[in-house]
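Anyone? Bumping this.
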Amino acid sequence: MSDKEVAMPPEGVDAAAVAALVAPVAEIIGGAEFVQLLTPEGERVDHPEYSQYVADLSDEDLRGFYRDQVLIRRFDAEATALQRQGELGLWASLLGQEAAQVGSGRALRPQDYAFPTYREHGVAWCRGVNPLNLLGMFRGVNHGGWDPNENNFHLYTVVIGAQTLHAVGYAMGIQHDHAVGTGDPDRDTAVIAYFGDGASAQGDVNESFVYAASTNAPVVFFCQNNQWAISQPVERQSRIPIYQRARGFGFPGVRVDGNDVLAVYAVTKAALNSARSGQGPMLIEAFTYRMGAHTTSDDPTKYRISAEVEVWKLRDPIARLKAYLTSSLKADPAFFDDVETEADALAGRVRAGCLAMPDPEPMSMFDNIYVEQHPLIDAERAGFAAYSASFEGEH
Amino acid sequence: MSKVTIGKAINAGLRRAMERDPKIVIMGEDIGKLGGVFRVTENLQKDFGEDRIIDTPLAESGIVGTAIGMALRGYRPIVEIQFDGFVYPAFSQITCQVAKMHARSLGKIKLPMVIRIPVGGGIGAVEHHSESNEAYFAHTAGLRVVACSNAEDAYWMIQQAVESDDPIIFYEPKRRYHEKGEVDLTATSAPRPLFGANIALVGEHLTLAAYGPMVKVCLDAAAAAAAEGKSIEVIDLRSLSPLDLDAVATSVNKTGRLVVTHEASTFLGMGAEIAAAIQQRCFYSLESPVIRVGGYNLPYPPSRLEEEFLPDLDRVLDGVDRALAY
């Protein structure tokens, strides 16, 4: 939190309300363990431990981070619009969390495996999942329409926190495969488990910490603390900062500015390196903000004041990177224009693809319930087929 | 042929499966040095190592959840839940994740997992150690549920379950772990398929259907009834999902009467499903209503009362008599 932000609340925002909100957050953000490499104003700052992890990033890499964030935000906005127009049943927006997702997603190596919640559209993008496939479950045509092993990106998990255990088990499998700590950068593998501040209260998340610590599994727990679990503030979930919980489980925790893509990249890269080398789990708390509603079914005006949102707009992850790229002459106006054009094209493709997405064939609901033949499924499939056929010729 | 207990038979089956497939790992509480609280995994860690016989932290959702991850990485985990009543902390992982992963991935992901659960009462245990929760899992699409009743089946069914590409809940009749049976440990193929029922005793007048620990009770009841001139056919269902209704219907079409028994409470239990299915399939063959003999619809009682709660030989015969009275 810079003085400039505190001193300049946005127009029309009650200054006292902002001050009340900003004070505790400023204390957190100013803390010694809060890693930041890019200030909200786009000023590049150094960190004694983490600057080294971004040292080898080229200007092209940095522009890539920008492009990723803009494209995924545009995709997200299009999905929200599609929901509003009745084309999706629901959408869980990532608005505001682009840096946390792109920074961590880009830190992964191809052999690493990611276990998302249902909001990791930016990570999916970085892993190469076709964004259209993310819409399937929200449109109601499937429960997850991609092959996880194609991009080492597991299916979205809706049950809060359940995937963190899968991530640890997968990491245990990596250990069994002796694909950790060999020193071979193409062999050593880590897992990243995404979850949110709300999930930090779940038993499964806490059990996953226990299992990861007990087995020294190569897993990075990546908590996007977006401050809100639907209507409940993070204080409802945790009495201490979430990253500090790691200590109690016996592994390191670090809090990073989740709206600073460079810092997120650096911290995640360091944690993944550590996990791959056999140093065991780490917890990253990416301190960010859910700019939109929990989902399109949610109404945040019931439980939070708009001034809070306005304050966080000043920490926007894309704006600060744009400011940095501009001031450091790493990108010119033509680049930004090109990205906008590309984003619009992506949105157009996503919209067209969504509208063209066929409803599944009714008979397909009997598919893939079991790998092997199951007589009850067969009998009901046959019964449904006969029942459906009885209407043939009717209008 | 060797005379082995059910516990030893499962141990031998696990051993054989692990020798065949290096991707098999066993995960659970106290299964390593101790060999499990029922010693079913005795000496396996000594012979297969700590990498493959994994003593887990004491958290059941964690056991099943991490086993899912192991399966996603290409392993074939066998999970031991220490007691039936302790599976509930893992209920969400089993019903929401294990059962649905294959369908959710449109067939891309397989979860070849076996979740072993010692089941049922009759051992004088404290609360939560005597539950029969098979209906929950048999009700859940995506899971298969089997229950062994004797040593030979125990030996073969665990091996067949491990070979299945579908997740399987594997019930072991804990009060019968120490009962012995003949098993040919040198045979190279299973005597019967995993998901089919077995006619444990051929009879004419009435069909008694059971699974797991109740099969022996039913065989004893049939022997007692035979002394009174009643010829009873006993079906060991073995698989609860899928349910071999063809075998039951064939038997009922012959005998005209069916009594279904289980330790679990009768309300919405396996007996309710079987009764509903058989009255549809065998309506014109039935000479009497389908009778259910099971646990009362109560929480499992303190152990001093379990003999009153559990269906025993007399209660089964009472059910038989009620059916034969029509």
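Late reply, but here is one note on the structure posted above: Chain B touches chain A through 47 residues (CB under 8 Å).
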